[in-house]
Task: inverse folding
């Protein structure tokens, strides 16, 4: 395919690195450097991994053992009781379902809207399209946290208060998504569009039948990013939702933290449960995230 | 854009705007969303910032009163300085850590880089709320692992929660830890794009690894550094959930940042007009940061 090198395969990295041949004479220093570089890398990796490891191992301890001295890294009596209590208590399973619904719908809408906008920005040449592109870039300067109060009033006036629509719709437009698709479609030769036009294809069917299938890797990358953003959203759902039956997972966890006496056993269980979907998605689709050219970077 | 240039020049100019309906249909959804959720709030936010609106009922225009009282409000000043302090601490720390890690992951010397990369990336997947819970668990004064280790090494227990500055430091560490994955990915992509021949030429000339890093890598990835700093600054200025779950802006109100201030005045005390004014100050700061960084970036690139 003449399309693109993005997303780059994640496993392309070692091959590229090996090709950086050094000059002879650095060979004895090379081994020493390899040892020190590897050691430093893994010391840092341990430092980064340790908090998560400690957290997950702690969540496997029974509630009574959590604070018993001396602290032990490995739980002596591993149990899932923290998870079970968290899952059963305080509507947590309901929150989980709510968050999943919101995430899936938002992600589908975001991918669709970004794909069509990115294609229009890349393959059509109009002054107002350029202006709109600047507008989209400007939204990164205006995150919803900055306009909490007025945005709340707008959503309330639209009648979306206390509904999933109020969380989903404001989150659909993302600069990152439009930018990623625009960059991708710029790499697709215009001749492809021209050829389809000569064959008599209509503009929208060129988009739907040629361009959409081509952009599948980008779709997956954006879908993962979008899913992560929405899963982890806190402040906007907190403002929008009033009915405890509609709360999302993050609100649920924060309500445990905000309690007078924190029930750490439940809190640890709930937090670990909330981490699982994202980590699963990430491990399955790793190469789409790791290899992605997210230089667009302008996070939601 | 460069790809399009020859195509445009060879085709008659009227081609450019022959298609109007199709692109309009394609961007329609995002145009509507942009108008509804960016233009509209921005406009009414600006209007309300000159009123004493409380969210319901009638309101009066009060001119610049909100802005006046904002600049006389010591709580606002505390929130503002605390936010700036947090940003000044977080952005360089995150920059240094993610650049260091990206360099090591790209380096051919380090073994097991692909596994290590996953380890560094996982914290980015966690939500700010969970990151806050996790570090709270780690840095609890009476029960945390860190104080336990310090006491084992016969040191005194450190007041991670009740000392305001240490508490901020924990948040800075937590945020740098959580955000490394993303910045690191951007840096890895940038470093891989630096032509290998530069390094070969440099080592022929006898430049050591440090020299190569500062004279080749750092200048070559300047645009990415710019993006990373800009994004991290914006993210730091609007940080809220991490503080809420880690120390709830405490001890007391000492670590209340701007967004928390806006949230409390706007939604807990119902002073929508006043909160809108605070929002606009925050927005102006963000814009100023972006413009300054744009100018600096231009100057560096033109050098």
Result:
């Amino acid at each position: 395919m003449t399309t693109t090198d993005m997303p780059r395969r994640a496993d392309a990295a070692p091959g590229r690195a090996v090709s950086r041949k050094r000059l002879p004479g650095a060979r004895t220093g090379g081994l020493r450097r390899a040892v020190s570089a590897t050691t430093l890398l893994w010391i840092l990796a341990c430092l980064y991994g340790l908090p998560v490891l400690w957290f997950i191992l702690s969540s496997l301890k029974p509630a009574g053992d959590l604070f018993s001295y001396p602290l032990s890294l490995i739980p002596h009596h591993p149990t899932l009781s923290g998870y079970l209590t968290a899952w059963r208590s305080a509507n947590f399973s309901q929150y989980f379902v709510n968050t999943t619904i919101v995430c899936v719908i938002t992600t589908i809408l975001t991918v669709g809207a970004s794909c069509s906008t990115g294609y229009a920005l890349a393959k059509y040449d109009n002054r107002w399209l350029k202006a709109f592109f600047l507008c989209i870039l400007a939204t990164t300067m205006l995150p919803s946290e900055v306009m909490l109060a007025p945005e709340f009033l707008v959503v309330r006036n639209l009648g979306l208060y206390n509904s999933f629509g109020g969380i989903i719709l404001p989150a659909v437009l993302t600069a990152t998504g439009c930018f990623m698709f625009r960059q991708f479609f710029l790499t697709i030769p215009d001749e492809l569009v021209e050829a389809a036009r000569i064959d008599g294809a209509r503009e929208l069917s060129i988009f739907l039948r040629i361009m959409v299938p081509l952009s599948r890797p980008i779709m997956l990358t954006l879908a993962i990013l979008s899913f992560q953003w929405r899963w982890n959203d806190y402040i906007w759902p907190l403002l929008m939702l009033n009915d405890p039956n509609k709360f999302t997972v993050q609100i649920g966890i924060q309500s445990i933290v905000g309690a007078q006496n924190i029930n750490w056993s439940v809190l640890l269980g709930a937090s670990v449960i909330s981490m699982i979907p994202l980590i699963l998605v990430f491990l399955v689709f790793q190469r789409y995230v790791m290899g992605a050219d997210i230089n667009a970077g302008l996070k939601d | 854009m460069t790809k399009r240039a020859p195509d445009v020049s060879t085709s008659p100019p009227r081609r450019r705007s022959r298609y109007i309906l199709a692109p309009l249909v394609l961007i329609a959804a995002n145009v509507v969303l942009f108008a509804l959720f960016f233009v509209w709030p921005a406009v009414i936010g600006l209007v309300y910032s000159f009123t004493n609106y409380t969210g319901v009922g009638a309101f009066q225009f009060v001119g610049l009163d909100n802005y006046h009282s904002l600049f006389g409000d010591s709580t606002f000043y505390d929130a503002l300085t605390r936010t700036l302090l947090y940003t000044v601490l977080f952005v360089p720390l995150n920059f240094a850590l993610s650049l260091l890690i990206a360099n090591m992951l790209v380096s051919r010397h380090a073994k097991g880089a692909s596994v290590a990369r996953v380890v560094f990336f996982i914290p980015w997947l966690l939500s700010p709320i969970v990151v806050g819970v996790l570090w709270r668990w780690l840095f609890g004064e009476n029960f945390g692992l860190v104080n336990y280790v310090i006491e084992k090494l016969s040191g005194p227990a450190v007041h991670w929660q009740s000392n305001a500055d240490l508490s901020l430091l924990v948040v800075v560490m937590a945020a740098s830890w959580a955000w490394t994955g993303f910045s690191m990915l951007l840096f890895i992509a940038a470093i891989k794009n630096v032509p290998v021949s530069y390094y070969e030429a440099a080592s022929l000339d006898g430049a050591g690894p440090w020299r190569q890093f500062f004279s080749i890598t750092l200048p070559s990835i300047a645009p990415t550094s710019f993006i990373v700093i800009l994004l991290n600054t914006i993210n730091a200025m609007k940080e809220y959930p991490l503080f809420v779950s880690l120390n709830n802006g405490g001890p007391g109100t000492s670590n209340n940042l701007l967004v928390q201030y806006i949230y409390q005045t706007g939604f807990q005390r119902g002073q929508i007009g006043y909160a809108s004014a605070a929002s606009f100050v925050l927005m102006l700061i963000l814009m100023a940061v972006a413009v300054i960084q744009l100018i600096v970036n231009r100057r560096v690139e033109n050098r």
